[in-house]
Amino acid sequence: MLRFSALAAWAGGAVVAAFVHYEGPQYCEAVAGLLAGAALYLAAERLVPGSRASHHPEGT
């Protein structure tokens, strides 16, 4: 099953990595892409209704 949040995080991380590669070559685009992708994934998982991270079981 394809999860939109993972695909969107990958795409966002790739865009940030490409931007850093061309605009800030003194920085590491791999680290920037990984950090941006992780942040986007966590945000999407919390904001998308019905995702694992946004679902809080009763009593917690």
Explain the overall architecture:
This protein has two helices and no strands. With 60 residues, the chain is mostly helical. Helix 1 (4-23) runs antiparallel to helix 2.
Write a concise synopsis of the structure shown:
The protein is mostly helical. Helix content is 65%, strand content 0%.
Element layout with pairings:
Blueprint: H1 4-23, H2 29-47
- Overall pLDDT: 80
- How many β-strand runs? 0
Question: What structural class is derived from the secondary structure elements?
Answer: mainly alpha
Low-confidence stretches: none
> Helix segment count?
2
Helix content: 55-70%
Share of residues in strands = under 5%
- Radius of gyration equals 14 Å
Q: Termini, distance in Å?
A: 28 Å
User: Could you give a short account of the major beta sheet?
Assistant: none
What's the order of the H and E elements? HH
Shape: elongated
Which keywords apply here?
60 residues, 2 helices, 65% helix
